[in-house]
Amino acid sequence: MTKDLTRVETHFAFGRNWASFADRITEVEIEEAVVGLQRLVGALNGKRFLDIGCGSGLHALAALRLGAREVVAVDLDQNSVLTARRVLAHHAPGHVWQVDKISVFDLSLDAMGAFDTVYAWGVLHHTGDMQRAIRQAAALPAPGGIFAFALYRRVWMDWFWRREKPWYARASSRAQARARTVYMALFRLGLRLTGRSFADYLAGYRSNRGMDYSHDVHDWLGGWPYESILPKEVEALMRPLRFEQVQSFTRKGWLFGREFGFFGSGCDEYVYRRSSALCAA
Question: Which residues contact 130 (CB under 8 A, 6 or more apart)?
């Protein structure tokens, strides 16, 4: 019987990774998150903000720092929920926020109301049904509201990652550690062959999700479920939903629009605005 990949028990333990990282959050990481979020959605003064797949809560915190009047953060993973609550309680006392354990597939406009900004960075491709997750999230911005999200770019190595990730997610911690060692050794070799220094790479490392390099490697290797998509396919999904693209940050790819993806696919970022007219059902 085929497993239902939308169920949390089939997923990699993203929440444990976020919990491990959260204790390292300082003002430096917070400021980087603020800059990254502002680049996508601008100022949030007086706006209602939804963070889908909130992870550590770092970007929910960034939204509050950008002036959001209310932040609602949701995640399917209980460890992420507890971590995000802890981070926000520590760094955002006195602000209006809530963190709930809920799947994107259970989000309801009737129950939650509309949001000025809906944000889902590097999340919807891990839900087990990416296209349905996109449509579900896209129902939540108010007319004229913003939907900002990031999705894995399709690469030629997708066939390999779709096999590696479920193996890694089920593997013992010892086997996972060996896999990370191999991955990082190959990555170091790749940098060396192209005349770059691993030490320099680490010194300048910036993660869009806020993690450090070692946590990002664990997250990448274990990120199951896994789907990917091309920008033209995103546009084909969003236009019938009455959204217009505001901006995007995508890579062109060097071979028929795709990258090889030996060390990963990376995320393309998209910002769409919902039509101010009443959307069709």
Answer: 124, 151, 227, 229
Task: Output the average pLDDT for the chain.
Answer: 93
Q: Please give the helix or strand (H or E) that residue 171 lies within, else none.
A: none
Determine the Cα–Cα distance for residues 54 and 141; give it in Å rounded to an integer. 17
The domain limits of the chain are 8-155+225-274, 158-222
Q: Look at residue 82 and tell me whether its pLDDT is greater than 90.
A: yes
Cis peptide before 93 (omega within 30 of 0): no
Give the mean model confidence (pLDDT) for residues 17-32.
91
Q: Smallest Cα–Cα separation from 49: which of 6, 95, 101?
A: 95
Rounded distance between C-alpha atoms, residue 252 and residue 249, angstroms: 10
Q: What tokens appear for 132 in the block?
A: 């349905």
Residue range 36-41: average pLDDT? 96
Summarised one tens digit per residue, pLDDT across range 127-157 is 999 999 999 999 999 999 999 999 999 999 9
| pLDDT tens profile 204-215 | 876 655 668 899
Helices and strands in the chain: count of H runs, count of E runs: 11, 7
CA distance 191 to 279: 48
Return phi, psi of residue 194, to 5°: -105, 15
> CATH 3.30.1300.10: does it fit domain 8-155+225-274?
no
